[in-house]
Amino acid sequence: MGTIVSDEHVLTAAHCVENLVHDLRLIYVRVGNETSYTDVQIVEALIHPNYNEPLFNNDVALLKLSMPHDVNESFKKICLPQSDIQSLAGNIGLVVGWRDSNRNASGLTRTNMRYISLSIMNNTECAIRYAEYSENFEDSIVITPTEFCSQSRTMNDVCEGDSGGPFMSINSLNRCTLVGIVAFGPSTNCGQSNLPGVYMRISSYTEWIRSNIKISRSKS
Question: Boundaries of each Peptidase S1 domain copy (predicted)?
Answer without folding.
Answer: 1-214
